[in-house]
Amino acid sequence: MSQTWSMKRFYILVFVVCITGSTQGLLIPLLTTFLEERGVSADVNGLSAAALYVGIMIASPLCAWMVGRYGYKKMILLGLSITTVAVGLIPLFTNIWVWSALRFTVGIGDSFLHYATQLWITSTALPNERGKRISQYGFFYGLGFGIGPLGLNLLSLGENVPVWTMFALLVVTIGLAMQLKEDQEKVTSEKREEKAAKHHVAVVYRIGLVALCPAMLYGFLEASLAGNFPVIGLREGISKGWISVLISAFVWGSLVFQIPLGILGDKIGRKRLLMAVCALGAVGMFLIPHLMPNAWALFVAFSLIGGLIGSIFSLGLAYVTDLLPSRYLPTANMIASVHFSLGSMLGPYTGGLLIKGWGGHALFYLISASLAAFVLLALVYRHAEASESSSLPVQEKQIG
User: Fold this and answer.
1) DSSP state, residue 400
2) What is the mean pLDDT of residues 43-53?
3) Residue 131 has what pLDDT?
4) Mean of the pLDDT values across residues 122-147?
5) Is residue 204 packed enough to be buried (19+ CB in 10 Å), middle (13-18) or exposed (0-12)?
6) pLDDT of residue 398
7) What's the average model confidence in pLDDT over 206-219?
8) Which of 32, 175, 190, 354 is the most buried (most CB within 10 A)?
9) Domain 2-396, CATH among 3.30.565.10, 2.40.30.10, 1.20.1250.20, 1.20.120.680
């Protein structure tokens, strides 16, 4: 495995992830803001935002097969090309359903390139560096997602300037990704592993359920904040500039804590850490509605809460590698991607329904309850997890 690791390739991959993260971070609040200003209802607005994640979810089951057949590099270039074309078409239309279709298309492209980059990194990293590399992967995705909403500040230069800027960055990224060199031997190996593990989804769930849940939680949290908070903020009288800063503050908070939390997880155990940060996050989300009148208080709260729970996706992925033998990791990565997509798809639409029926405060209470429910699940599932792990053949156990 050490022979297939390349730092140059790693830098290119995390740059790709950073730019595509910024694409999601910009498009969700930008189009949501446009539709809110055009009088589109909150639930329909949320449904449109969810289209991106529907695309991710539908494409996810195809990813393992496509990587095995075409290789990592072609998969990444295909995903980037699909995303770039869809982004470039957005300024040409103003219809909500066309925008929803383009969001859906962006989701397909994102699914392809995120799966390929994520698996390429996790499958080639040295065992003693895997947690570190996954944390760095999550860091750069979060960096991009945090930069994305700041593009709303370019609206003063013209309505289409943020989108054209993102289009130009994606074109540059395609050129950079073309420098990647395929590791055919490793792709063939992953293809064999994927075929061997494709019938073991039930095993992955039995052993890794707690580790796979954070992907859905993070997806719900990220998409609902990016897709619904612009609506909540505008109705609360918060300016567009502050809305972009607050969404970014959540992500920037997660970046500050991403690597320290990864190191802490190595020391105290990732399951214990996940339970702790989700419990604290549940309390923080419950308090957010009471801080709504004060933008600076929201900024501090979003930064701290983001620092706590903004790393649960990467912590969950690292925890999966602790629990499962390596041959199950392609299947586990696919499941995590589907979970993230489901959470992201449910987030904006559920948030829209809550805003329409009970007001924006209800969204934060639901997020708080969801984080608390995960903590309870982790407590209850502890013994079942150990029991299932012990039923694996000795040579397949991997203690984390």
Assistant:
1) -
2) 81
3) 67
4) 77
5) buried
6) 38
7) 89
8) 32
9) 1.20.1250.20
